[in-house]
Design a protein that fits this description.
With 122 residues, the protein is mostly helical. The chain has one domain: Globin-like, CATH 1.10.490. 66% of the residues lie in helices and 0% in strands. The chain has seven helices and no strands. The longest helix is centred in the last third of the chain and has 18 residues. It is globular and about 40 Å long.
């Protein structure tokens, strides 16, 4: 069974990504990096990516192709401060869903690696 299925599938991912975006809309540091005219689309894309990554539907790949995360984030100035804020908001969002310690640890490890890979500024 995939982690996607273990944690409750689409409902769980939809819940935590929605909470993340609610926080992001109010964030003064990295919120402005997000497309102000396409919050819903941005939310869908993150949810699709995470669902696919954790063994769910392949919607992200079908809609967007290869993730190319670092390339897609290059236009934005992302330093340690921005990466940490993203992680802080992601942690708060993950608190909104029921996960075992092992499930959260697996997701958190991925989030930390992803945030570190996006850093492109001193």
């Amino acid at each position: 069974m995939s982690l996607y299925e273990e944690v409750g599938g689409e409902e769980t991912f939809r819940t935590f990504v929605a909470h993340f975006y609610a926080l992001m809309r109010e964030d003064d540091l990295i919120g402005p990096m997000y497309p102000q005219d396409d919050w819903e689309g941005s939310e869908d894309r993150l949810r699709w990516f995470l669902e696919q990554y954790w063994g769910g539907p392949k919607t992200y790949g079908e809609q967007r192709g290869h993730p190319r995360l670092r390339m897609r984030h290059m236009p934005f100035a992302i330093g340690e401060k921005e990466a940490q804020r993203w992680l802080d908001l992601m942690s708060q969002a993950l608190d909104q869903v029921e996960l075992t310690e092992e499930q959260r640890a697996a997701i958190w490890d991925h989030m930390q690696r992803a945030a570190g890979m996006m850093i492109n500024q001193e």
